[in-house]
Amino acid sequence: MARLKIKTLREMNRTDLSEKLAELKADLAKLRSEKAKGTLKKEAGDIRWLRRDIARIMTLLNEDKEEQEKEVSAKQ
């Protein structure tokens, strides 16, 4: 799995980011279940990078949310 760059994530819109977040969370759950079963082989290091990619996306979504809240409060 290729690591996500912040530059490419910033180019995505909110719905694409939400979809990518759901996809990454599903992948992470799958890897964690394989790890618990003891069947995880090559992808053991991927858990760390998935967590970081999820954090990047969540940060961008939160920044966008804060921006929208500032715009709404500025209009009032």
Question: What would your notes on this structure say?
Answer:
This protein has one domain (6-75): Helix Hairpins (Orthogonal Bundle). Helix content is 79%, strand content 0%. By secondary structure, it is mainly α. The chain is elongated, with a radius of gyration of 16 Å. Helix 2 runs antiparallel to helix 3 (46-75).
Question: Could you write a compact summary of the structure shown?
Answer:
The chain is mostly helical and 76 residues long. It has helices spanning 6-11, 14-37, 46-75. The protein has one domain (6-75): Helix Hairpins (Orthogonal Bundle).
Which structural traits does this protein have?
single chain, Helix Hairpins, 0% strand, elongated
State the oligomer.
single chain
Helix/strand/pairing class, anyone?
Answer: mainly alpha
The 3D shape can be described as elongated
**Mean residue pLDDT:** 90
Measured by DSSP, the beta-strand proportion falls in under 5%
Radius of gyration over all CA atoms, rounded: 16 Å
